[in-house]
Amino acid sequence: MLILKLTIVPLALLALGIIERLHGPRLAGWLSGFPVVAMPLLLFNSLDHGAAFGSAAALGAWFGLVPWVGFTMTYAFCARRLNWLWCTIIGFAVWTIVAVIAVRLEDAPRWVEIVPLFAFIIALTAYPRGEASDEEREHVWWGLPARMIAGAVLTIVITRFAAAMGTHWSGIFATFPVMGSIIAISNHIQYGRHAVMEAVAGMSMGLASVGAFCFAAYTLLGQTSLWAAFALALLASSTAHALTWLLFKNQPAKA
Q1: What is the pTM of this model?
Q2: Going by fewer Cβ within 10 Å, which terminus of the chain is more open, N or C?
């Protein structure tokens, strides 16, 4: 289990970093929307604590998309004028505030479950974007190793403490912006604010994939076998990600 936690996210970050160097941060951001972090965390929780716990955690992960949007939107807007450190501090402050609100929403009436969908629509239509670019950028040797180490550390910390917090917070942390924060910060440090805008543009479109996975897992766990539930949730996620490719390819960029 520890080996998986130490390898899944870092290897995903390595792959995204290579793609980013070849095709730019927007494509890498879009691909990061696939539930590389949420899927194993929810699976580990379900295996350790049962399908009911996993379903409740998946609901928390679904609501966790709202603070995720809060972080990425805040970071992107702040990146227009502030350095990466201030963007990180303000972004995670916003994430914390919105996460506390999202935890309370988990106990609200069922119709409130539509809130993360509205958050996705807002991000899709209002996030700051620049023109997609394949411009040549100088790549420092430590960029990819630093991302991989940061991804491993964040994953270990989250999985170490999330389960002790119960289903609400363990679900919220399943969609903690591990890859999103690393991609935004590293792009900001290495390439500047325009790369941040491109990365956030891609991540916002890719959010449909992790959202589809979390909601499907929440709905299916307990209704069918654990492995069938995760297989169907992965199918829903893959379908949503494939559909967003059309949007990724055809939607015009904003200034």
Answers
A1: 0.83
A2: C
